[in-house]
Amino acid sequence: MDAHDRKRIAVAVQGGGAHGAFSWGALDRLLEDVERDRLEIVALSGTSAGGFNATLCAYALGTDDEQVLRARTARKLLKDYWLSDAADAPFSPYTVTAKAWHETTGSWNIDSSPVALTAALSNQLWSPLFFPQYDWLAQVLGNKIDFPTLQLQREPPHLYIATTNITLGRRDVFAKSAVTLEVLKASASIPQIFMPAHYGNYDYWDGGYMGNPPLSPLISHATDVVIIQLNPFARNERPLTAMAISNRVNEVTFNSSLIHEINAIEAMNKVLDYLDEKSKDNASVRQALETLGPLPFNRVNLYRITDEAYMRTLGYASKAVVAREFLQELYEKGWKAADDWLNKSYPSLSSTAPRVAALPSSPPAKDFPDQVLDDLLSRKNTFK
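Below the sequence we write its predicted structure tokens.
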């Protein structure tokens, strides 16, 4: 296929612990089309487990190898990571319980199990100061990525990892040239389980609180942005038990930043569509736009790869289950969701780069401290 016909997308990968194996499956299906030269992933963003998936993918695709080999390497790295996560993870009562629970009930949702209830109570009484801190990420991910090589890559895809800076109360985004193993640890530092990750002069918690996943860094790279979503937006049943409430609070909290960014992008799309429509039959508007020159924003088409019906069958505790059978099931669900999305949406995707490659700089917003505004609105917290 001619490079001009290859569809260009940016991919935002949501975090969600072991549920990230769904994203493994979705990315694997997308990479099949990269391998076939039908698709180009020009940028990736991610948070927590989504950050792991995005980094593995960006690392393999950013090499100087032929595209087919790069895509195959990315698929292999993702598979090796998730299977080694299942094989090398420390003993987990969650996983042991989930296997027995699944054999008995057919469900991986262990929120009502004694293990999950005990852990939930323990998290209310004890801080991570009292928990052993096991460096599992270095064991299952550190030997799969050469971070100095990653940082020096100049080939696409671009990469952005979100973290929550709890020292300054802001979202810090790390571009590919600044991503390290410590950054990925910071992005996945769940406060109930891990001590705050210390990086540079700041302490960090899981990036999901501020960007799960971050969308704004992607909009200058592609007109089509695909979100691989793990946390369902909707649930019909009322959360009445303590665990159901905890699970729903987690889902709403870790979706909130995503919803706000989606709304902001759609608001800008409506403005652009309105101006475009008015300029067709209003000479004054058309002349004003011609005088201004090209607007410094692109229309962004947002897509989702998800399976909300399946994700609603899971709970909060299953995000800590790394049973191989569970990860494989999630992979298959993610692969099918991505396949369905490609079959439906591929013809509508663009093969051209955005007209505006970067947003202009602007002065800080009045009455707001510089550090709480997004980098695209002048905050200097995207590290490169």
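Residues 7-379 form a domain with the Cytosolic phospholipase A2 catalytic domain fold (CATH 3.40.1090).
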